Amino acid sequence: MRTRIIHLCMLFCLTAGLCQAQQLAQAHIPAQDPLIQNFFPPELVIQNQAAIGLTDEQKSFFRTEIRDAQAKFTDLQWKLQDEAEKMLALVKQPHVDEQQAVAQLEKVLAVEREIKRGQVAFMIHLKNKLTPEQQAKLEDIRGRAGK
């Protein structure tokens, strides 16, 4: 069990590092994940705003959503790092208190869940602000870029 907790801790520390490196504006979901096929990364929308005909109201909405999301996810990344460091400190001990380690693991997982939930909600907000025509144009642009 101790080895399992150590492996989980190492995984979460790696995850914490990856989360810090991740830029919110990209809000990437791994390419293998079917979700990516149904959402549009903010940078794709921003880079192609003229091509898809974003209105001033849509541009304003995107700016506000991205700014708010960046602040939220920066706070969550700090929180995740803090919880992961606490987890690491627990498992570095010569004798790991299993109950404490598992309780701390739950805290790490809760923050990760909050991040994922926030990412998906963010992507939904952005997609819902695009018209079906704009979404079709972005799909076409993404398809051409992927080839």
Mind summarizing the main beta sheet? none
**C-alpha-based Rg, rounded:** 19 Å
Poorly predicted ranges (pLDDT <50, ≥5 residues)? 2-29
Mean pLDDT: 84
Structural class: mainly alpha
- Helix count, DSSP H or I runs of 4 or more residues: 6
Instruction: Sketch the topology as an H/E string, one letter per element.
Output: HHHHHH
Instruction: Please give the number of β-strands.
Output: 0
Query: How would the global form be characterised?
Result: elongated
What's the N-to-C terminus distance? 46 Å
Helix content: over 70%
| Strand residues, percent | under 5%
Structural overview:
With 147 residues, the chain is mainly α. Helix 1 runs parallel beside helix 5 (98-129) and helix 4 runs antiparallel to helix 5. It has helices at 2-21, 42-47, 49-52, 56-92, 98-129, 132-146. The relative contact order is 0.17. The protein is built from 6 helices and no strands.
